[in-house]
Amino acid sequence: MLQRFADYIRLHGLIAEGERTLLAVSGGRDSVCLAHLAHQLHLPFAIAHCNFHLRPSDCDRDQEFVRSLAQSLHVPFFTTDFDTHAYAQAQGYSLEQAARLLRYAYFAHLCQSEHYSRLATAHHLDDSIETFFLNLFRGTGIAGLHGILPLSHLTLPPTDTAVADAPPISLTVVHPMLCFSRAEIDAYLAQHQLAYVDDSTNFEPEVQRNRIRLQLMPLLRELYPSVDTTMQANIHRLHEVEQVYRLHIEDLRRKLCHRVAPRLPWLSMPIDAFPLTSLATLSPRSTLLFELLRPYGFNASVVANIEASLPSPQSGSQFCSPTHRAAIDRDQLLVAPIPPPTAPTLTIRETTLPSSPRTDACQIYVAPTSLRLPLRLRPWHPADRFCPFGMSGSRLVSDFLKDAKLNALEKPHVQLLVDASDRVVWVVGLRADNRFRVHQAGDACWLVSVSQ
Q1: Element (H, E) at 79
Q2: Residue 170, strand partner residues
Q3: Contact (Cβ atoms closer than 8 angstroms) between residue 398 and residue 354
Q4: Which runs of E-coded beta strand occur in 99-216?
Q5: Same domain, 324 and 352
Q6: Does residue 208 share a domain with residue 181?
Q7: Least enclosed by CB within 10 Å: which of 27, 202, 266, 439?
Q8: What is the DSSP letter of 207?
């Protein structure tokens, strides 16, 4: 079994020679087996354990058991305690979701602070098959049918919600025990007389995974004795099919999607554009449209609304995910991140108009004699009017933006420079007001600039 363990790690490139690895150890049979195999293979590793205080007496027992295990193996030991109930209630998560997020956030912190390259967990073949059936019944699509992958990269939301703009949590996770069944692990523990602790929640019938493990799998093994081997092969094939599928999706994305630069100079917001005619002719449309929009966080319901709009698209229609906004703009579907509502920084300095003023969307020259201080920036409103530079008479800012072909995702971020009388001096980055122009070179003026 030790040789198969080493071969599986090498085959899938899970742990490089000499690489320091953090092992997630609960104290159960699977993670004890993982720790023993890693020790036998002389891998440099540490053990990490989380006490969620969901089963007070058992959790404390497990924590001390794993501490003793680490001492017996002479490896570093890290542990932490969580008030999982309080965190789940505060964030609106289920206990399972809360425990998962807290656990992986802690492991990611340890990997970073203690310089471990990755986390290893004790998921095995039976876990992967159970995951296949869970995802099959949940309707996760092809992405859920490969079971558990040997190596995965997790991106999790930050657990410290008190820190504004906290970055997401990243963690590389390897599963070097996927080549073993639960029965093989039990046999290894018995052969080496290894102690472990049982988690009583593994036998609670209301947990879906437990029902698959305790009820569905025994029935399938009775009907199809080779079901484990067959499912292992199926999962492998489905993973290869998914890879081909992903290559096609990414090739389609490269052909259809192009990046649009924002017209507003301070708006560092990437905008992706998809031609509506191309989206409307996708086949199969629902599946491909979902896959193209899934990386932006759009769920199936929102994608269905976007698809329903394709036969008769209404320019200006918008659709939101937790992280992105999509808008139909003329003949394109535009997608951009939802940026924080920040205004550009305003700088004003006295100068004279040069003989050849530099053309720059981030600055204008204005005549101070016509203005009432102070100058300030504010968002535009539908009733705002100004006198566009180079034109006679006034116009609604909204009409100007329409003629300027500013897209629906940029318009909400347009800023106006106004004076103390709330007169528009500049539609920032787009057009100055004719009333405040500087007439000739050498005249005293203000140079007004904006920056991110």
Answers
A1: strand 77-81
A2: 155
A3: no
A4: 118-120, 151-156, 169-174
A5: no
A6: yes
A7: 439
A8: S
Q: Are residues 207 and 266 in the same domain?
A: no
% of the chain beyond a pLDDT of 70 = 95
Condensed to tens digits (0 to 9), the pLDDT of residues 182-231 reads 999 999 999 999 999 987 666 666 678 888 888 999 999 999 999 999 99
**Domain residue limits at 276:** 257-337
Q: What is the CATH number of the domain that holds 380?
A: 3.50.40.10
Q: What is the Cα–Cα distance from 324 to 335, expressed in whole angstroms?
A: 7
Identify the pLDDT of residue 117: 93
Q: 408-444: per-residue pLDDT in tens?
A: 888 888 999 999 999 999 999 899 999 998 988 999 9
Within this chain, do residues 404 and 317 fall inside the same structural domain, yes or no?
Answer: no
3-state class of 100 per DSSP? Answer: helix
Establish if 115 belongs to a structural domain.
yes
The count of structural domains within the chain is: 3
> Cis omega before residue 357 (within 30°)?
no
Instruction: Tell me, yes or no, whether 249 lies in a domain.
Output: no
For residue 57, tell me if it sits in a domain: yes
* Residue 426 sits in the same domain as residue 315: no
Distance separating alpha carbons of residues 212 and 236, to the nearest angstrom: 20
Contact 349, 389 (CB under 8 A): no
Considering the domain architecture, whether residues 261 and 313 belong to the same structural domain is answered as yes
Residue 184 is part of a domain; what is its CATH number? 3.40.50.620
Contact 87, 178 (CB under 8 A): no
Last residue of a domain, one of 337, 353, 370: 337
CA 117, CA 438: separation in Å to the nearest integer?
Answer: 61
Q: End-to-end distance of the chain based on CA atoms, in angstroms?
A: 58
- The backbone torsions φ and ψ at residue 431, rounded to the nearest 5 degrees and listed phi first, read -160, 135
Q: If you average pLDDT over residues 220-246, what whole number do you get?
A: 91
Matching residue, tokens 């904006």: 450
Q: Which tokens sit at 88?
A: 């789940």
Residue 27 placed within a domain? yes
Q: How far apart are CA 236 and CA 11, in angstroms?
A: 14
What is the three-class DSSP state of 348? Answer: strand
The partner residues of 346 in beta bridges, in order of sequence, read 450
> In terms of domains, do 42 and 134 share one?
yes
Residues in contact with 262: Cβ distance below 8 Å, sequence separation at least 6, in sequence order: 268, 269, 271, 410
- In angstroms, the Cα distances linking 324 to 57, 289, 303 are 44, 16, 13
- In this prediction the pTM is 0.67
